[in-house]
Specification:
Elements: E1 17-22, H1 29-40, E2 51-56, E3 62-63, E4 70-71, E5 85-88, H2 100-111, E6 115-119, H3 122-128, E7 136-137, H4 144-150, E8 155-156, E9 162-165, E10 168-171, H5 176-189, H6 191-201, H7 226-237, H8 245-252, H9 256-266, H10 271-289, H11 294-301, H12 306-317, H13 321-328
Parallel strand pairs: 1-2, 1-5, 5-6, 6-10, 7-8
Antiparallel strand pairs: 3-4, 9-10
Helix pairs in contact: 1-5, 5-6, 7-8, 10-11
Length: 333
């Protein structure tokens, strides 16, 4: 797919490229709405329509997630063979094999040279069709381990918001549909057009960091023994103190070797890794909910210095403390 970044905001390709969105039963309407909003509606601020966008389904009626509404009046799979770009939204059941006719339609479109886009768990569909073999891709962080197990031949990159691997594009979670849609606009029509669209959306044309900043810190499993659970609760309440592995072991009434075994068995990580994750998680909560300076947050979370906090936060989320606070700040009561 040729890319042209020379267009001014008022310019566009003629004729319009055709984008076909393949909609599954029980799909989440959000990703579909993102693609329609960015790529499908008339954009007077950039001279009109950017694409000829159409929706395709395998049946005359498609029931959307939780039965919110039923979609009718769509095109059929044959429209994929005339598409310049094919978009596969999220897939509700990644364990169930997709229908052979859908996979074959995707293979034919790709072989013909169409750009292929998988939104969130839509990456499973592209991988099942064999299109991602040996290629880079991403998926929502909650699906990462399942995707790796099902498709070990794909170079999975779970830390980023989207991946563009030479005509095969994948996006991480629901909101990253907007990131990828704007990337498509920038690739086809130039950065100026993408910036104009993003301003109308009140959404940044490029969000710093990746989906690492949204990954939840695993909590102790409910099956953790009482002694260990008590030590974990004590540590979480005293993160500002110089707690180390020896202190955790003493609190749990265990030797350090026994503590390591219990952590591995019940939490799937080492005591030091768990303690570090709790400190970073606490620092993130303070950045989100308080006006405390970075130096104070570093002390209260047990990370020591502002430099240490910046280093650990960037490693964990890809963002500086100021960028993280700006993006995730909660309204203070």
């Amino acid at each position: 797919m040729a890319q042209d970044s020379s267009h001014a905001p008022s310019g566009r390709r003629a004729p319009l490229e055709r984008v076909v969105v393949l909609v599954d039963d029980d799909s989440n309407p959000f990703e579909l709405a993102c693609m329609t909003e960015v790529l499908g509606i008339d954009r007077p601020e950039v001279g009109g329509l950017l694409y000829d966008l159409r929706l395709a389904t395998t049946a005359p009626q498609v029931r959307m997630r939780q039965g919110f509404f039923t979609m009718t009046g769509t095109a059929g799979l044959e429209d994929l063979q005339e598409a310049d770009t094919v978009i596969v939204p999220n897939r509700p059941d990644t364990d169930r094999p997709h229908t052979p006719e859908v996979l074959e339609a995707l293979r034919r479109a790709h072989a013909r040279g169409a750009r292929m886009v998988g939104m969130c768990s839509g990456a499973f569909t592209l991988a099942e069709a064999g299109l991602l073999r040996g290629r880079a891709a991403t998926v929502h962080w909650q699906w990462a381990e399942r995707f790796r197990a099902a498709h070990p031949d794909v170079d999975l990159r779970p830390d980023v918001l989207f991946v563009d691997d030479d005509g095969l594009l994948t996006a991480a979670g629901s909101a990253s549909a907007l990131d990828l849609a704007l990337h498509i606009v920038a690739s086809d029509h130039g950065a100026d057009v993408a910036a104009a669209v993003s301003r109308r959306l009140v959404f940044p044309a490029h969000r710093p960091g990746g989906q690492r900043q949204y990954i939840e810190t695993p909590l102790p499993r409910p099956s953790a023994p009482d002694a260990l659970a008590g030590a974990l609760a004590w540590a979480q309440e005293n993160l500002a103190e110089p707690i180390d592995v020896a202190a955790l072991a003493a609190r749990a009434g265990l030797s350090r070797a026994s503590l390591h075994r219990r952590f591995t068995a019940h939490l799937g990580c080492t005591p030091l890794a768990w303690l570090h994750a709790q400190r970073v998680a606490h620092a993130r909560r303070l950045l989100e909910t308080s006006d405390l300076p970075v130096e104070q947050i570093a002390l209260r979370s047990g990370l020591g210095t502002a430099t240490s906090l910046r280093s650990h936060l960037r490693r964990t989320t890809g963002l500086s403390p100021s960028d993280y606070r700006r993006q995730h700040r909660h309204a203070l009561a």
